[in-house]
Write a structure and sequence with these properties.
seven-stranded mixed beta sheet, 5 helices, about 160 residues, Aminopeptidase, alpha+beta
Amino acid sequence: MISHPTERDIAAIAALNNLFVPEGKTLHRTKQFVEEHLADYRVIRGETGRIVACVALDEYSPSLTELVGLAVHPSARGRGYGVMLIEDIADLARRRGYDEIFATSYSGAIFEACGFIKEKLDEFPEKVLRYTRIDRTEVEMSEKHCFSRMLRAVHPTAG
């Protein structure tokens, strides 16, 4: 059910993501962003083959990645697609060797159900720096919350 998108899907992914921009639930994504991150996306298609849900990874460092662009079309809600995509993309991040994945969202319940814990955004200065340059409102979150999940045990270095 979850699949890798193709180049033919770029416009559909951007459109689905951008459906939620007016509500402030997602950041605007250009077709160029989607194209550059195509290998980092996972999608779910409806019965007609149309993309009804998507999510992606956005790397910050070799050990840290962000879950971005989680979007489920209103016609496909209530089927568990959000949880399925969160689990799949977290597994992809783990397989790629990231130690930690984080996300920002208005909806904490879905992330907490997937094993994420609520964090202060200040714990991720990389996010603050990057999004201050892109969209200041993303770091001036009043109702949005930050969540993280460890993907690997972090071992202190022997000294």
